[in-house]
Amino acid sequence: MRSTSESSPSALDASTDRERLLVAPAVDRRTFRSLQFDADLVIVGGGLAGTCAAITAARAGVQVILVHDRPVLGGNSSSEVRLWVLGATAHMSNNNRWAREGGVVDEILVENTYRNPDGNPLIFDTVLLEKATAEPNLTVLLNTALVDVEMADASGRRIDRVSAFCSQNSTRYDIGGNLFLDSSGDGALAFLAGAAFRMGAESSSEFGEKFAPTDDYGHLLGHSIYFYSKDVGHPVRFTPPAFALSDLDSIPRARNFNTSEDGCRLWWIEWGGRLDTVHETETIKWRLWQVVYGVWNHLKNSGEFPEAANLTLEWVGTIPGKRESRRFEGLYMLRQDDVFGQTQHPDAVAYGGWSIDLHPADGVFSEKPGCNQLHSRGTYQIPYRCLVSRDVDNLFLAGRVMSASHVAFGSTRVMGTSAHCAQAVAVAAALCLRDGRRPADLVEPESMAELQRELLRRGQHIPQHTLRDGDDLVGRARVSASSALALGSLPDNGSAVPLAEDRGQLLPLPAGPVPQLGLRLDVSGPTTLKVELRQGRRPDDYTPDRVLAGKEVRLDAGDDQLVKLDFDAELAEPGYVTICLLANDRVAVRVSDQLVTGLVPLRHRRDQPEDPGTGCPGFEFWAPIRRPDGRNLALTLDPPVRLGDPAAVSNGVDRPTCATNAWIAEFDDPHPGLTLRWDDPIDLGRIELAFDTDFDHAMESVLYGQPEDAMPHCVRDFRVRAGERVLAEVHDHHQSRWTLTLDDVVSTDELTVEVDAVNGAAPAAVFSVRCYADPDARILRHDGGARP
C-alpha cells in the first residue's frame, strides 16, 4: 500500500514558528489536504459485514483499506445504534442447531462474550476496533464518507478509484484499488458505479414468491431508534422537548410500552417504510425521536407507571438503525424458495437461518403486528453469485446490499448472516488477486471448490460441505486418545423438571438398532406418559417430525422411578434423533448437570402452521433451553453410545452436524489427550486446533446478557507436544480456534494434545487437529495483488 500527501503550500510557508503559532494570510482559495492510497481491496462500509470482510482479507494477505463514515465500527451493532448481533441461531428459538456463524464473526462474538457477558455496547466497540487495528494489512479510515467513484474506462465495467472525505481531519482521500466491496448498507459505492439496484418489493409473480407483500402492507422495512433508561435511586423529573409526540393514541401498540424494556427489545419502534429510506433518512430520524421522547414522557408523566419515578433517560440513539434500502443485482438473486426449500447451490459459501422477517411499512403506527416471521426447517445455503455484481467486473456486494429479493432479504439482512457472507467475499478477493481473475470467474467449478476449501479452513461453516484438505498432514496420521466417550448414562443431579410442556433430548446415534433408553421420573399420581423417538428428514435435520417409534408408559405415584424404554427401531444411517417426552402434569423428569459436546436439551416451544397462501412450511419448534436452566435429561443408554471417536478430528467438520464430529474424552479421564503418529517424520510449520464453543449458543452481543464468559464445553488449559518437546502451553483459552505458527520447522513423527482443564462441566473435546508444513496461512503472499 502506498500513500502520497499534498498540502497547501501557502499555509505551510506562512508558519513563523511551527511549534507555537501558524499565521496564514488570505489567499484566493484553499483546498483540503489530500492523501492518496492504493490497495488490493477497498471496502466501503465498516458495519459488521465490512469489518469482518476487512479482517478476513487482511489475514489472507490482502492489502485492505476500509472506508467507514462513522466514528466506530460495527454499524447497527455499534454503540451508536445498539442492536444485538444475530444470525442463524435466531435467539435459539427455532430448529437451527449449532448454527452460529464461523470465522471472524465467531471470533468476535466469542471474545465479546468473554470480556463483556453483560452486553455493554461500548465494550463491543472496543472488541471490533481492537481486532481491526491488530491487522498490519488493514488501514481503517473512520469518519470518512465516500464522495465519488472514478471508473477505469468508458465501458463502466470497472471501478478504478474512489474519493472520500473526513470532516474530522479535513482530509480528502483518493483511493485506488484492484477490487472493491460495497458493504455500506445503502450501496453508496455500487450506486455511484452505476450498478443495477432495486428498492421496494418484487411482485409475487417475478420469482413465484407467495409471501411478497401487498400495497397495504408496504414494500420497505423502516428504521428504528432505541433508548436506554437507568434507575438513579431518587426521583427524576422529565420535561419533554417540544417535538415529542403528545398523542400516543396514534400508536396502536402504545399499551405495550413498559419500564422494564429498553434498547433493541423495542425493535418495533420503527417507521419510514413508506418513504425513501436513503434520501429521507433524516426525516425518518426526526419522526422516531418524536416517538421515543413521547413514549418516555408517557412513562414518566402519565401517572400509569409509578415505578418510573427514579428512572432517567441514559441514552437515546442519534442515528437510526436502518433495515432496508437498495438491493443490488448480482449474478443470482436469492428468493423465497431458496430459503424455505433449502436449495443446494453448487457455489454455496455461507448460510442463513433467521426467519423471513417482514415488517409493515407503517411501523409503529400500523394496526398490523410489528413483524411477520416465517421460518424454514433449518439453515439454508447462500450462493457466491449473490455477492458478485453483474454490472461491475471488480465489485463485490455484502451486507444489506447483497443480491436478494425483498422477501429473501427479510432473512439475509441480519448481521450475523451478512458478516458470514462478507467473509466469503474476503477470501474470494484473495484468490482473485493471487490469480489475476475477476470475481465472476470463481463461479467455475474448480475455482469454486478452492474457494470453499479456503473458507472451511478458516472456520467458515458451509452446510453439507466437508473440508477435504490435501495439505493437512493429519490425514496421513494414526490418531489415538487416552479415552473416548461411550455414553452409558448422564447422572441425575437430584432435581426434576415438570413436564408442563413437551420436553426433548437431542442425541446422536449410530446406524443400527436404537439402544434401550432409561429415564428417571417423579410421578405425583397414576398416569400414562407418552414418549416418542423422532427424527428429521435428513441425519442433520433437527425438525423432529418423523416418528420412528413411540411408547405409552403406565406409571404409578412415586419419586425417582427408573423407566426403561425399548423402541424396537433401527437407523439406516448415523444421525440425530430427538427423544420426545409429551407434556404430562403428573410427571417430572430428572435432569443432569453434565454437559457433553453435541447433546442439547429441548422444549416444544410452539408450532408454525403450514400456510399455502404464503408458502410457509408447517412444523413444530423444538428449541434449546438456555443455560443455566438448560440441562440434559438424566438418562441411561444400553448399550452405551460411542460419541467421541478420536478419528473425528480429521473428518473435516468443526461442529456437530449428523454426529458430534469431535473427539470427546470419558468423564473420568484424569489426563485426557490426543496423539497423532506418522510412519515417517513430517515437517511441521503450523498447527490448528478447533474447540467447542457451543455453536448452538446465540451470543447476542448487547443487552441480552450471557450466563457464562467462557463456554463450558471449551478446553481451557492444554499443551501441545512434538514427541517430548513442548511446543506450546496454553492457559485460559476460550476461543473456537487456536493456531500455532512455528518460527522454525519441527520434524517429528508424533504430536500430542494434552488437556489439563475445561471451562465448565463437560469432558475434554476437540473438533479438529490440522497440521501443515507451510507456516504461512496467507493466500496472497506478495506486495500488491495482480490486477484482474
UniProtKB/TrEMBL annotation:
The keyword Iron applies. Pfam families: FAD_oxidored. InterPro entries: FAD/NAD-bd_sf, HdrA-like. Keywords: 4Fe-4S, Iron, Iron-sulfur, Metal-binding, Oxidoreductase. Coiled coil: none annotated. The keyword Protein biosynthesis does not apply. GO terms for molecular function: 4 iron, 4 sulfur cluster binding; metal ion binding; oxidoreductase activity. This is FAD-dependent oxidoreductase. It comes from Kribbella sindirgiensis.
